[in-house]
Amino acid sequence: MSDTYFTKDHEWIKIENNTGIVGITKYASEQLGDIVFVELPEKGSQAEKGKDIAVVESVKAASEIYSPVSGIIIDTNENLNDTPEVVNEDPSGDGWFYKIEITNSEEISDLMSEQEYLELIGD
Amino acid sequence: MSEVIQGFEENLKKTPLFEMHNSFRGKMVPFAGYSLPIQYETGIIAEHIHTRKEASIFDVSHMGQIKITGPMIYDAMERILPISFSEMYPGQIKYTQFLNEEGKIIDDLMVYKSTEGDYVWLVVNADCIEKDLSHLNLYLNENYTIELIQDRSLIALQGPESSNILCKYFPDIEDIPFMSAGWFDYKGQHFFISRCGYTGEDGFEISIKDKDSESFVHELLKNKEIKLAGLGARNSLRMEAGLCLYGNDININISPVEAGINWSISKERIENGNFLGHEHVKSDIKNGVSKKLIGLNLLGKLPAREGADIFNLDKIKIGIVTSGGYSPTLKTPIAMGYISEDNIKENDEVLLSVRGKLIPASITNLPFVKHNYFRGKK
After folding, report:
1. Any residues with CB less than 8 A from the CB of A43 and at least 6 apart, and which?
2. Minimal Cα–Cα distance from A18 to chain B, Å?
3. ipTM of the complex
């Protein structure tokens, strides 16, 4: 059983047990435009909820990605090193950024449901 | 995700093509006080590549068009501009700069020598219009009329197919050389068309009465080779072409020799002088300058943006990036920046500081992508 949650900063996290997969939303990828580089966190590094953990470079500018929850980075999407455009093509699937082992499951209650997020972006 | 700039600021001016940009779903952003499209639906990379392959239309109506008339107009303008009008044929345009007394760049611009020999037509940067007008008013007396054109849009048509398409409307346009201009009629309207641009490709800048600009753009778009392109592609195209952007690569603290654009200054004028900043330009050429604009090929995929520090391999700071981004043609990040003169050697490796990481890059000559200007019929 997995659930996907969202942040007001346009990240998504798909949670299964105490592990989450994080990416950015379709809306975010459209706002950024053509993505040419994703700076991923180091495996084993600590993520803090709401703090920058990755950087997306689009043709336009650099944008920081904030971690939806605190935890330890257990895997990153190495495919993005060679094909960062996957984030534009499939932001909620193959364009994921990292896997995180959640250290404080109480933080999940601060996240938004899909419906709440869609209302936020006015969809 | 940190916030992406949006065009919702109040008090932004609109060009006459604003509604059209919206109807083509342009992503509007604030630029030089205007709301302008950074891209349309296909995105910056697709627009960039299309421009290099076929042709694109850019709305550059925010730029300042200035007409100056008065007695002995060319003598008067030569006090302000470091070019020689006697070396220009009627109908020619030249890239030049307004320099201050210290020989630093107030603005860079295009100047047109009219075929009738009685006026000059300037195209200046939007952000510099006010200071350019003050500068002109300071150095031209009351016998000269300085008119900021308020009722004309400016459209850039850029790319290798530009000429084939534009000559359907203006048959005489096909043979005019690059860097020349003139007045052309279509459907009873006067168009001021110059063969120049900011992409490194063949192309034209078309000055049209505001009321006619949208319908003319729609007419051009009937040609399947032509698409709209936004500010994002305009920037990546000009960077590949190694062309300076005022506010980034050149500004009031930079001299033309430092920026490597002194090719645009007349050799005869450097000898004989009598233009603002002359002594400084002459001395810069004779004695050299402490820093120069160079190109940088980055290794890896991480782009370095303006403001990134440049270090030598001993990690001593030697300069700063003034423009940087992704090159859709070369499929790699590129940058332009200033480094101290004694560190400049082509292919030398340097390090660029991006968010605390040091990215290797090699020094290269500009442009990154060869210019493809029209040099006359083969």
Report:
1. A73, A74, A75, A76
2. 23
3. 0.83
